[in-house]
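Hey team,

Filing this mostly as a record. A colleague (T.K.) asked me to run one chain through the structure pipeline before their review meeting, and I want the input and output archived in the tracker in case anyone asks later how it was produced. No errors, nothing strange. Just documentation.

Input sequence:
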Amino acid sequence: MEPLMQVVFKERPVTLRQKAYQLLKQKIISGELAPGSLLTESELAVSIGVSKTPVREALSQLEHDKLVSPIPRKGYLVTTITLKDIQEIFEIRLILERAATILAAERITNRELAKVERYLELNFDPRDQESFYQYIQANKEFHMEIARASHNGRLIEHLAQVFIDAQRLQYMDLTIGESSWAWQRDHERIIEALRKRDQKSAAAAVEEALEESRTRLLSL
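Output structure:
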């Protein structure tokens, strides 16, 4: 059986636009391209090793994701993260993830539960940037698998959009002390509630996990 990390990420970008988009997104989420950094098509094209066209298309998509903002005749700025952003992102995550987990506790199938449980196998090497980033991506998939188990298409769609904003915060959170241990514990609690089809416990587990993460970030 393939390792879970390979299963999650076995589909790779197949176009130059996708390659540019994924690479730039990873650099922004990881902070390698820091908030406030000025990005130009020409410099990015050279660093990535592609022409300007796929870079321009990638930047347009990143603008749609609100990870960059255009500066006329200069390029793009990597968007900043304010305290207000942190508060708003956690407020909307709480609303959507609490709802998704409650519905999942009622509707999840045994097959869907098995897919969620596989994410307990995840680990990463903090010294390996790629491993670190893939863990962040896999963590998103853990939450999205739960959302899919809600069987509410609109809820799934909205939560996927929220995670574009949330991943930079998750990356920051994962660099704080024992956060990886806290994430593992939170995942175990959520999964245990799903196994029991316990909506109240599922909601409580999500609420506690998000509040602890928000508190860690606001203490930076």
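Quick notes for T.K.: The chain has a mean pLDDT of 91. Strands lie at 38-39, 68-71, 75-78.
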